[in-house]
Design brief:
InterPro entries: AAA+_ATPase (IPR003593), ABC_Ni/Peptide_Import (IPR050388), ABC_transporter-like_ATP-bd (IPR003439), ABC_transporter-like_CS (IPR017871), Oligopep_ABC_C (IPR013563), P-loop_NTPase (IPR027417). With 347 residues, the chain is an alpha/beta fold. It is built from 14 helices and 11 strands. Bound molecules: iron/sulfur cluster and magnesium ion.
Length: 347
């Protein structure tokens, strides 16, 4: 069957005074209906540039490659066509709900307006639908709160309102870019739970952009780890957490706090900074920070420096359901022992 979203060979470049920056460099992935794919990486890894490219929202960038929604090519569509699709088939939820809400209209009016725009419903029907939507995203006393303004809502409740607006047009694909990053931990968990529930009930495909592997563990089915605008590793979430094959993924997992050891420092990070995206040589983008290359034989290190690693199956047993695991590394890590998921504090 045709995947809901299929991205192939996607590149996004910006011209800057210092030269051309390639924020996304030959990326490919699919999002199936009823599944959540998490794009994970540090800031500057190209994950937000990817989501904007899928939505057709880049203005000053050169975007090449293919983005197909339900088999239909989106690159090269006219702005009006894209904007219609964005309303009707793809919806988005961003980190800062206030930036997406109008301060002078009640939240009920804003949801009703989104609904009217997409379904041409009458005012009364749209207002009823707005109250229903507020209930569906877990806002108590929805009939009363529909008449309130965004500033009367807490951050978590505002994000629920944004989700209600996104869902009002009944999209097939939801793109959520750091949807809970601005929220405190308890509220974050509640909003993630809501997203997961809605995703399942509606059979939505979700593209979730996050830097937080804890968020990934809660809601994603598949994970694509990005580094320097490229895919480092892609796998079903369990396989990735149990046996990461890319040294960068391993580093990200090692930097998670260990739940089985409360004294463990929660904020270990991977040494070094993200790569410059300006004119890059042919080797692996992670080389300067890679502990595995640092320990490798000279010949292997030469290969890391000179040849871009392409995604391939790592040395792993293929799971019974045939789901695929891909890693872009010349020296992928061996499969870990059975204790590893527990050691990462995630099982
Ligand atoms: Fe490290 Fe080499 Fe693998 Fe890149 S290709 S992640 S430098 S071992
Ligand atoms: Mg971002």
């Amino acid at each position: 069957p045709t995947p809901l979203l299929r991205v192939d060979g996607l590149s996004v470049s910006f011209r800057t005074p210092r030269g051309t920056v390639r924020a996304v460099d030959g990326l490919g992935f699919t999002v199936e209906r009823g599944r959540t794919l998490a794009l994970v990486g540090e800031s500057g890894s190209g994950k937000s540039a990817t989501s904007l490219a899928v939505l057709g929202l880049h203005e000053d960038a050169e975007v090449t490659g293919s983005v197909r929604l339900d088999g239909r090519e989106l690159t090269g569509l006219r702005p009006a066509e894209l904007s219609a699709l964005r309303g009707r088939r793809m919806a988005m939820v961003f980190q800062d709900p206030l930036s997406g809400l109008h301060p002078y209209y009640t939240v009920g009016e804003q949801i009703a307006e989104a609904y009217r725009r997409h379904f041409g419903a009458g005012r009364a029907a749209a207002r009823r639908r707005a109250v229903e939507m507020l209930g569906e995203v877990g806002i108590p006393e929805p009939a009363r709160r529909a008449g309130e303004y965004p500033h009367q809502f807490s951050g978590g409740m505002r994000q629920r309102v944004m989700i209600a607006i996104a869902l009002a047009c009944e999209p097939d694909l939801l793109i959520a870019d750091e949807p809970t990053t601005a929220l405190d931990v308890t509220v974050q968990a509640q909003v993630l739970e809501l997203l997961a529930r809605i995703q399942e009930e509606r059979g939505l495909g979700v593209l979730l952009i996050t830097h937080d592997l804890g968020v990934v563990a809660r809601v994603a089915h598949e994970v694509l780890v990005m580094y320097g605008g490229r895919a480092a590793e892609q796998a079903p979430v369990d396989a990735l957490f149990a046996a990461p094959a890319h040294p960068y993924t391993r580093g990200l997992l090692d930097s998670l706090p260990r739940l089985d050891d409360p004294d463990d420092a929660p904020l270990r990070t991977i040494p070094g900074s993200p790569p410059s995206l300006l004119a890059r040589a042919g080797g692996c983008a992670f080389l300067a920070r890679c502990p595995r290359a640092a320990d490798a034989e000279e010949a292997d290190r030469q290969r890391c420096a000179g040849e871009r690693p392409r995604p391939a199956a790592p040395p792993r047993a293929v799971p019974a359901d045939g789901t695929s695991h891909q890693v872009a590394c010349h020296l992928p890590l061996p499969a870990a022992g059975p204790g590893d998921a527990a050691a990462a504090g995630l099982s």
